[in-house]
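Team,

Forwarding the record for the chain on the shared tracking sheet. I've put the sequence and predicted structure together so nobody has to dig through attachments.
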Amino acid sequence: MAQRHGFDLEEVRVSPDGQRSSVAVVVDADTAPSLDILAQLSREVSEELDALNVFGEMPYVLEVTSPGVDRPLTMPRHWRRARGRKVAVRAGGRTIEARVGALVGDAEAPTGVQLIVVGADGPTAHVLDLAEVKNAVVQVEFSSRTRVKLRSLWARQTIDTIVTTSRSSTSEHRYIRVASH
């Protein structure tokens, strides 16, 4: 279902939540997903879960969302989507703060990523082998330029998480506003 809407399925989590179950479906794409498409995907997943009677009569909460900025960069597509962003990378026993540049190697199976490090002598590019990365996370920036972008996102009411509560064939849609990535 996610692929039909142009998404990569990143993760599905099912966990007990009191008298109901919680189902989280995390999807991502090269462009920020629109609220309408996430809502449509949420309805389709809810209808499929109901049709398959996965939870029987037990109610469940379905959350269809895009990953937040704290998602680790573990796959080449994550690095591609983070291009230009500031990251903290743990590799080779040290942590590097840099901006993500281009992926290096074969387009279908990149082997490295270009990291732009700003030092006293200005920016320098380094290539890091993706296999050496132990952990990498996008850093949240609050520079004046970033603050203007954040104000713009809030003004446009950016929403990138949809929660659907469903019990058998009765569905209630709630929209939750979260920070956009």
